[in-house]
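Retro notes - structure team

What went well: the batch runner handled both jobs without manual restarts.
What didn't: labels got mixed up in the shared folder, which is why I'm recording both outputs here explicitly, each with its sequence directly above its tokens.

Job 1
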Amino acid sequence: MKILSAEQSRAADLYTIDQEEITSLDLMERAAYALFCFLEEHFPEEQAYHIFCGMGNNGGDGLVLARLLYQSDYRVSLSIIKHKDEGSPDFEESLKALPADLKPQYLSEKEAEFELKQDAIIIDAILGNGLDRPLKGILARVVELLRNTSNFKIAIDIPTGLFADENSQNELSKVMACDLCLCIQSPKRSLLHAFTAPLVGRYVPIDIGLNQDFIGNLKSASYLLEKRDIAEIFRPRKKFSYKGTYGHLLILAGSENTMGAALICAEAAIRSGCGLATALVPASSFSAFNIRLPELMLYAQDTEIHKVKGNFSALIAGPGLSTAQSSAQYLKNLIQAAPGPMVLDADALNILAENPTWLRFLAAGTILCPHPGEMKRLLGLKKFEHNYLDLVLAFAQKYQLNILLKDAISVLVTKEGNFIYSDFGSPALAKAGSGDCLTGIIGSLLAQAYSPQAAVCLATYLHGTAAKLAAEAGAVESVLASDVNAHLAQAFASLV
């Protein structure tokens, strides 16, 4: 799904209106009806709603939604924030269309108090995606009052106070944090950005039928993965194939005190379909590997690179490796030998951060899988600012790398300059070993000749889906990385 800017979203609205020969009010009615259908499907008939409207078109959406809910016998309260003398034309028309006995309460600088039922869901239809300055006056006051309530909150398109595209000049403490955002057509960039996504809660795109040909021709560097994208990437196995068909993966991982990371990574790789896998691990761990993963071939980490036998199609390096000098030198030798496409994680990234000139040794398209802390070390930063993705992009393009920045919403920053967001994750993955599992899946897919971008996209889906499936058996708190590995088969099955 293409992520549009606020300007592009408005252009898509106008193009759809022109091509379908409808009015902007007709499109507002269509959007509000789509929102109504979502609420009708997902919330009980007895649910109460309190809709807060601004005086622009986002407020107009709220007015139409209030009318539709009221006419379907839902309990509806309506408040309009009088932040200017006159509303937009479509707002004023929607206001006139309200049923006579659905009387809105007006909130102003002089009178901003309102009564809110404890069981009512707050619908935020105050301001939309055109905002470009922090809230002030009556708008800031009402939002502050609403923020301090315990009511469930749903935002229409975007939470009030949040800028659609870039929020470095915003005052995020004034934004209406919500529990659910029903974003029109596609999520805005700020719903996915690490600094602002926590204000959004969960988001659901609401399709209102904007012209897809027009959207398809718009230029955007940002995309959100959907399951249908993953289904197009996935290649089911052919009947007439053998282990050599699916590649040979080489894994450099583990040290005396962190063999668990290597085991988790290697098991994830094998369960993700590579035909063969060989691990370079400490010799003292051979017994553990032979017991846990007899399918894996082993070499000691002090084996000279040229003596490691195999026609390797991809390389993993980093999980549990340590940053000892011997590990660093071995990693350098291995990446210079370049046995195939590479995915580097964990201590491999920490070694690169300490030896930045080695980044020049990496083949174009190499995948790095840092969490924010590891990425900051690679960039030489103590903390991220709002522009952190621009810095990651510059780093990726300088060294021609693909960087999967892992987070609650992960983003693949490609060497071509694209941002591909993956929101398949789960709180169940907030556990040691989860990253090692993901790296194993990516490396396995690389070995099977998936492109770096396809391998990362498919892996994030499988990883997140397996975690959700594991959590269904108990609770997110109890899921281990080993449980994620155990549910990879079901994650693959969801694509067939």
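Job 2
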Amino acid sequence: MARSKPKVLRIASITDDLVCDELHQTGPESVTAGVGIGNELLVFGPGLPQSHTLFELGEDGVYTLVIPPLASGVLSLRGKSSKVADLWRKQARRDPKSKAVRLRLDPTAKGKLTLGETALLFQFGPPAPPVPKDPFPLEYKARMFA
């Protein structure tokens, strides 16, 4: 029996109705989002964190979506659509001191999260092929007039 490849995240970052960035993972790993330039996803808006682990990869290889308080949007989990505001209300009833909503995601999950002025569309898919690395740095390549 052939083993299927693990599903990884594909995320599009949209600001001002323009696709600003796309992330298509080559392998499973956690994804950070924030206003700092060291994140995989750069988001814009007041009150957003410098860095926040938005998609956390567990030791079992399952992603967990960690929704910060200023997020809004819609998620589709196992064919059922849920609004982020409803998830926050349920979380507040269970644990009013909670700082984030944590949801385990299955490979069929997809959604749209809005963080400040940035919308993030995500879904799972097969890994992207690795980008081939040049065997020799381009700055040392022979030139005609060198």
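One thing worth noting from job 2: The first strand starts at residue 8 and ends at 15.
We'll revisit the folder naming next retro.
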